[in-house]
Amino acid sequence: MTAAIPELHARLSQPEDLLRARRALCRMAMQLLAADEDRTSLNECVRSPALLDSPLLRHAVHEALAAGAPSRCDWVGVRTLANGPRRLTVAELSVAVVSHPDARHMLADVLSRFGGGPTAMSLLTASSEPRFSRDLTSLTAGLELALTASSAMIHDLLPHVSLVAILNDAAGVRSASLREYPGLVLVASPQSALAAAEMLVHEAAHQKFFDLALVHDLLNTVSDTCPPFAPPWHHAGTLWPIEQTLAALHTYACLAQLARDVDGTPGQQPVDARSLLPAAPERVDVIGQWLIAHSAYLGPDARFLVNALLNLEPTYAQQESDSRSEPNNAVVRAHPCLHIDLDAASGRVLVGRSEQPYDFYFLDPDSGLLLELLRERQLEQAIRDFARRRHLDRRQAERLTASILPRLATAGLISVDTEE
Questions:
Q1: Which residues contact 296 (CB under 8 A, 6 or more apart)?
Q2: Please, what is the angle between helix 39-46 and helix 15-33, to 10°?
Q3: Which of 16, 126, 276, 375 has its CA 20 to 30 A from that of 95?
Q4: Degrees (nearest 5) of the Cα angle 92, 98, 104?
Q5: Which residue, among 193, 303, 184, has the nearest Cα to 249 in the 3D structure?
Q6: In tens digits, what is the pLDDT along the chain, a chain of 420 residues?
Q7: Angle CA(292)–CA(300)–CA(201) in degrees, nearest 5?
Q8: How far apart are CA 52 and CA 211, in angstroms?
Q9: In this structure, are residues 291 and 306 in contact, taking their beta carbons and an 8 Å threshold?
Q10: Any alpha helices (H) in 216-299, and if so which ranges?
């Protein structure tokens, strides 16, 4: 069963396609929102995936989009953390590990978000020897175990982790990820290889989910109105919104697979008292059944993901076609402030709107082509050129266009004025 989760992820996006799409989104957002003084660093970043994947850079993008204005980026921190000399490496898998003594200042905001002020949690760095090297060795043993037991899954998840930070005083935290700093994983000192493997899979699953949520339709227009989920294993009053509940299902499913995969491996170690591995299968069922009951609040890709994780023989939910067989007589105009980027390898099209509110959309190849044609052509000419580019007859092109236009209009990428 090791390949089950990687296979269902691949039905949404091939691994490299998902990473390229996420980087393209970050690149476009930076190009639209970067402060003038950041342009030189941005050009360097575009050429370096290690810099483009930086949690500090991606946090700056998050802040800029939220504010609708340029946000200054800590470029010194981006370069220092991305190019540090210490790495967690096993075979072909490798991820940067925070080691610079000044990292505690570069990541002060991250540490402060766990409560108690910036000193509530601290980091191990290269100045914390010999403990730093000892913990890095323990993490390496955990990655080796994950690679031996769940090779396909760890190959699928770990590329979404850009940076691992080892906690000195974990303040009760075993491992953590913050949505505001995507790509960054915090781990406490592992007590065993199994504990290390669990922490890496747990947090890498969150990072994979963050990227899926950026690129795919996990939520819909009514998701915000969904009643919250109350996890019965937490204290009374704990409530999760639907996206957090979906993320939890995904993570527990990955942990359940790790538990199955390590069972019976040579030299298997007992789980510690804080491990989530024994509880993971049951929690998958509890969360999954709640999400099935509230599936109306999920986007089509999330419904696929839930069904797949529950072994319900998912069928990929295709976009619903518009009921009209041909476009109405209409004046269709593309939004004047669009940036369009085509990923030639996957065919996926990224569209960004370069005025407030800043929005980004991933389109299928047909929708992307039609939108590109509508930027310079009236609808009738766009349909003719669309038919020629896609090798369709006139009737086929009209039907496909009629199914695409409502989705582009709903996203605000085109305006449609019906002619009387």
A1: 222
A2: 170
A3: 276
A4: 170
A5: 303
A6: 434 899 999 999 999 999 999 999 988 888 887 666 666 777 777 778 888 899 999 998 888 888 777 767 888 898 888 888 899 999 999 999 999 999 989 999 998 887 655 456 789 999 999 999 999 999 999 999 999 999 999 999 999 999 999 998 766 788 999 999 999 999 999 989 999 999 999 999 999 999 999 999 899 989 999 999 999 999 999 999 999 999 999 999 999 999 999 987 766 677 888 899 999 999 999 999 999 999 999 999 999 999 999 988 665 544 444 445 456 567 899 998 899 988 877 788 999 988 877 889 999 999 999 999 999 999 999 999 999 999 999 999 999 999 999 999 988 899 988 764
A7: 70
A8: 14
A9: yes
A10: 242-262, 280-293
Question: What does the block give as tokens for 334?
Answer: 């593309």
Provide the H-helix boundaries in 322-393.
365-374, 379-390
Distance from C-alpha of 111 to C-alpha of 116, rounded to nearest angstrom? 9
- Secondary-structure breakdown of the chain: helix, strand, coil percentages, each rounded to the nearest 5: 50, 10, 35
Are the beta carbons of 27 and 46 closer than 8 angstroms? Answer: yes
**CA-CA distances (angstroms) from residue 10 to 13, 231, 255?**
5, 29, 19
Helix/strand number for the chain, H first, E second: 17, 10
Structural domain boundaries of the chain?
4-309, 330-418
DSSP for residue 295: G
Q: Rounded to whole angstroms, how far apart are CA atoms 149 and 2?
A: 8
What's the full length of the chain, in residues?
A: 420
Cα 254 to chain center, whole Å?
A: 15
Closest to 184 measured CA to CA, from 95, 114, 73 = 95
CA distance readout (Å), 359 to 1, 110, 351, 365: 38, 26, 8, 19
Q: Which residue has the tokens 């605000």?
A: 412
Check if the beta carbon of residue 207 is closer than 8 Å to that of residue 177. Answer: yes
User: What is the distance between the alpha carbons of residues 206 and 55, in angstroms, rounded to a whole number?
Assistant: 14
**Cβ(6)–Cβ(152) under 8 Å?**
yes
At which residue do the structure tokens 């200054």 appear? 72
CB atoms within 10 A of CB 126: 17
The answer to whether the Cα torsion of 181, 197, 206, 189 is positive or negative is negative
